[in-house]
Amino acid sequence: MRYANTMLITALVTAVFSSAAAHGQGVKPQDFVTKATVAGKTEVAAARIALKNSSADDVKQFARQMIKDHTQAGDELASIAKGKNLQVPAHVDAKHGEVLAGLRSQSGAAFDASYAKQMVADHQEAVALFTSEAGDKSDPDLSAFAQKTLPTLQHHMSMATSLASAHSPAGQ
User: Fold this and answer.
1) Looking at beta carbons, which pairs linking 137-143 to residues 24 or more positions away fall under 8 Å?
2) pLDDT tens digits, residue range 145-161?
3) Residue 52 belongs to what domain range?
4) Could you give the number of structural domains in the chain?
């Protein structure tokens, strides 16, 4: 049931952002670079915490994949952004810093459940952001990057949903 609800929410969020992008209402290039970079840096930082605070092999495997994929995408986005004289954030913002602090304070099964739930939420946001940018043709380079990266983010969301199901506390 929770999986079905997660997928329904994902479909609705994606539809809203796809509709906005189709009507030329995507985010400005600097906003996309900022949001995507902060999201990616958050994923990498959260994954590093997971490698320390989790004792579950599947969580650690997922975390290693997040580090690899989000570091690679972040490097590519930074290269595109610098070529356009767009600013690339060096750190996560306060909101994402709080999320990371919350994860750092947990360990074991409680950490695994929180981390997996956070990964679902984060990837829903990322998929929506990248779907919007992929449909916004105002900056062809960023649109192409979003189109290229979107399938990976969708795969991450699917993996995160499975991880959340596997590590959800009993009765939830």
Assistant:
1) 138/24, 138/26, 138/29, 139/29, 139/32, 139/84, 141/80, 141/83, 141/84, 142/29, 142/32, 142/33, 142/80
2) 999 999 999 999 999 99
3) 28-165
4) 1
